[in-house]
Every structure is written in C-alpha cells, then in structure tokens.
Hints:
This protein is mainly alpha-helical. 53% of the residues lie in helices and 8% in strands. It contains 3 helices and 2 strands; from the N terminus they run αββαα. It has helices spanning 3-37, 81-103, 118-127; strands at residues 57-61, 76-80.
Amino acid sequence: MNSKQDKDAELRDRMVAEMRREQQERQAGYREQALKLFPPVCGRCGREFEGKKLRELTVHHKDHNHDNNPPDGSNWELLCIYCHDHEHTRDVQEARSQVEASAGESRPSLHHSPFAGLQGLLKESKKKP
C-alpha cells in the first residue's frame, strides 16, 4: 500500500475504535442504571441471575432506539441473552412477513410441519383396496 492508503486505513481504524469505545461506555451506563432499577430477572422467561451469570442479562430497548435512555428506565427491559436474541429475531421475521404480504408474495414459512399432508394421505390410503 502507499502512504495515503496507510493513512486512510489508520484513520478508519481509529474512528472505528473510538465509536466502539463510545458505544461500550453508553451501554455500560444504561446497563448499570437498569440493573439498579429492576430486579435481576429476565422479563420473558423469568430466570433469575446473580454472580457471574449476571452478565447474561441484557438491556432490551422496547422501541429499538439505543439512544432513547430515559432515567426512569421506561424504554428498557432486562432480558437474558437467549430471550433478547429471540426478541430481535421475531422482529425481523415479522418485518419480513409484512413486506412479503404487501408485495403479494406467498412464500413458505420458516417452520416445518411434518404432519401437514397426513390427512390427505390417510384419505387416499382408505380409498385403495
């Protein structure tokens, strides 16, 4: 690489590192605040957390805006990492379904129903001698 590319890469790396540091500071601030406001319990599955396991408890922003951090915690709920992941996956699936519905697309769902055609097969087998 030439000197300009080296400088650009170095500048980019510094900017990314700074953004990550700022994000971690912001998260640490509202996480600490949420842990003071709410009991260490997942708002979905009800699991209780303490000691080293407390790190598995995350702050979920109800409106999905990570910059909306009111001091009363009204935009937060504590979720374990599994429920938090499920919450965001569910939102993605709902958004995808809405887009497909508005476009008139009919795609098979992501779940599998192993007995979906069983009734038809049973009817056919009864007709055969």
